[in-house]
Amino acid sequence: MMIHHHKIIRSFLSLFLLSIGLTLSAQTDSTDLTKYVNPIIGTKGILIYGRTTPFVTPPFGMTQWTPASFNCKIGRPLYNYLWHSIIGFRGSHKPAMCMGDYGWVSLMPVAGSKAKFKTSHHSHYSHKHEISKPYYYSVELNRNTKKKVNVEITSTSRAGLFRIVFPKNTEHNIFTEASQEAGGWIKIDSANREITGWNRDLQSQSISPKLPNFRGYFVIKFNCDITDYGTWVQNIISPKNTLQSGIECGARVTLAADTVMVKIGTSFISIDQARENLQKEIPQWDFDKVEHESLVEWNKYLNRIEIETTDKNEKPILYTGLYHSLLFPRQFSEYGRYYSAFDDKVHNGISYNDYSLWDTYRAEHPLLLFLTPELVPGMIQSLLQMFEEGGYMPKWPNPSYTGIMIGTHADAVVADAVVKGVKGFDLQKAWLACRKDAMVPPDGDSIKWWGDRDPWTSYEARAGLSWYMKLGYVPVDKTAESVANTLEGAYDDFCVAQVAKAVGKTDEYDYLMKRSQNFHNVFNPATGFMAPRFSNGQWSPNTHAGFTEGSPWTYLFCAMQDVPGLVTLLGGPKKFVQKLDMNFKGLHYVHENEPGHHYTYLYDYAGAAWKTQMRVAHYRTVKYRNKPQGLTGDDDCGQMSAWYTFSALGFYPVTPGTDIYAIGTPLYPKATMYFDPNDRNKKFVIVANNISKKNIYVQSVTVNGKKLDTPFLHHSDIINGGEMIFEMGPKPKK
Q1: Distance (Å, rounded) from C-alpha 483 to C-alpha 464?
Q2: Cβ(302)–Cβ(669) under 8 Å?
Q3: Which of 326, 352, 463, 572 is deepest in the core (most CB within 10 A)?
Q4: 668: helix, strand or coil
Q5: What's the farthest any 2 CA atoms get from each other in the chain?
Q6: How far apart are CA 229 and CA 222, in angstroms?
């Protein structure tokens, strides 16, 4: 592969700086694990695949930079490995396939004088000449033509830095889109070598409240003179124009140098704040310094899990999974201030956004308790700020309330942190927020249908809560997704009860724990499944009505808050195991979607832990690979990846809101988890003796020398440090 001289210089400088950085920060950055991260994993497919994006960003970066294969929408990602052209390089805020982008900025370099007469451009490229890392991306556009352009990108949390090499003896143009959908404004200032602008683009706006003050602001600076310029709006080109507004508007500049540096500051507060963010984060034109600092930041978190393995694919799968899990929720505050999409105002404080809570409460947020314990309090406090500013904690902010998915699983994230001893957020306020989710129906609840992605009328919160409180279930003739809403509401009741217990609200705890048993009210003994009921108490003849992204099989095992009670409900351990077997053997289980992510671990609760080990090892192998098509389902802000991380380590949080983990089967001969960024001696070591592709069955487990009699582990066993030793073998120990 031919590499441009800038890449060679970059490689040598990075190695030199890395050696210095690792020496200076040996405790937190002992190994460069970014070399195992492949952001391309999960980007290849047609319909059902990971739909991940190769973002260049530090962990939890506010603005994430990526090549764009096409203009994204809700339901369509920005980048697809199957596509062989790029239309721009985007500073994006799109968190997942099913959600939209907002407040973005796009840049596209194009060589040649004819470029100035177009408003959109497609440049071909080959994956052979593409490099993707968490902290760096490069590609050669239009290779083997006279218009070849080399693009390199690195970034900080709120700013991006480009190094672009144009061919000599051509015109060097850069196109900047300000808006595609809701309108924007852009200004060229050639004297100061900059472009400023903003847009109102918010792809989730039809399912969100109106936000008159919402803007995505940007400041673009160039390191060379602007020799020509123009603007466009809806394909109407205005040469020599410096100011433009409207829908589908943008600007073009022609630059004097062959090698151009471009840095872009972003903000949700103002253009001045975007300029301040840029000055604080990228004050100079030092590409290699910014790249190295991002690399060090990634290693700070990746190094909190170290594994030993001889399989060349296992490290790329694990560390790419950690990369995906460390992207969200995104930072939303800007040096002590943040724009809130919940009251449309600017506040003082720390903020995060883009929580895919229906997905991520299951394993992603429990994983962050280990990977980033110092950041978790701020993430929870951000949810409480949204409660203060908008009235409820969100379900799936993007960046404001949306009607996507069901339940109020911020309750689970808060409860899990409370039970596991996290401090640093307002516990009393957390109780008020969780209590409101459980006790106050949303506006118009008894008369609204609450269909998925219905146009915004008011915040949905727990759809059908008024009926649930009256009948003990959500009726199928009154509320959409009624069975799923009942089951997920009952689990959330359990979570809110744990917060009530933490603040000494005994009566509320008892009431909510009793209500958490409401899953019994939608179990139909005649069919043996969770089933829809009418408001008059009768069962609906349409047994598939009332579910969310699934079938009666999908929700049969969803009472995570009381698995022993569910075992009894389904006829006892033997029948429970038989039903689980039918679920898997009948191909009803869909690992690509999150409601069943804990199902493989349920055998632990019915005396058949060896089947958990068999199922976990199977899905670990067939659903996660070191290939562009290596994720088979939407990663959804890191949840698919978090399932893999836990399952590769050997345990899983079946019930967030408790301190218990179900034991599965480890993948590595040795794995070490580090919990204190300043003390590498505080660690939990997982050893798997005799582990191999055949030896997937656990023969015995000891924790700090004490043999476990049941396949369960407590949070304190892990977080207090020590050693867990698995003895593995080729046959089940039943």
Answers
A1: 10
A2: no
A3: 463
A4: coil
A5: 79
A6: 13
Q: Is residue 603 part of a domain?
A: no
Tokens of 583: 């679920």
Output the DSSP codes for 29-51: --S--GGG--TTTT---SSSS--
Sign of CA dihedral 198, 203, 204, 207: positive
341/294 Cα distance (integer angstroms): 28
pLDDT digits (tens, 9 = 90+) for 94-141: 999 889 999 999 999 999 998 898 988 999 999 999 999 999 999 999
Sign of the C-alpha dihedral computed for residues 203, 206, 208 and 214 taken in this order: positive
Residue 408 has which token pair? 């109020």
The Cα 319–Cα 310 span in angstroms is 15
- Which CATH number belongs to the domain containing residue 106 in this structure? 2.70.98.10
Q: Which amino acid is at 513?
A: M
Q: How far apart are CA 498 and CA 502, in angstroms?
A: 6
- Flag whether 556 is in a domain: no
Instruction: Name the domain count of the chain.
Output: 1
Domain that holds residue 72: 54-302
Would you say how long the chain is, in residues?
734
Residue 343 lies in a domain: no
| Total H helices, total E strands in the chain | 18, 33
What are the tokens at 696?
A: 């997937």
pLDDT above 60 (res 3): no
Q: Take residue 423 and report the two structure tokens written for it.
A: 């401090």
3-state secondary structure of 230: strand
Give me the pLDDT at residue 30, please.
54
Instruction: Burial-class residue 47 by CB neighbours within 10 Å (0-12, 13-18, 19+).
Output: exposed
Question: Would you call 114 exposed, middle or buried from its count of C-beta atoms within 10 A (0-12, 13-18, 19+)?
Answer: exposed
What is d(CA 718, CA 652) in angstroms, rounded to the nearest whole number? 12
Percentage of the chain modeled with pLDDT above 70: 96
* Owner of token pair 């290693």: 299
Give the tens place of pLDDT for each residue, 567-604.
Answer: 999 999 999 999 999 999 999 999 999 999 999 999 99
Strands (DSSP E) along 180-225, which ranges? Answer: 184-189, 194-199, 216-222
Residue 527 lies in a domain: no
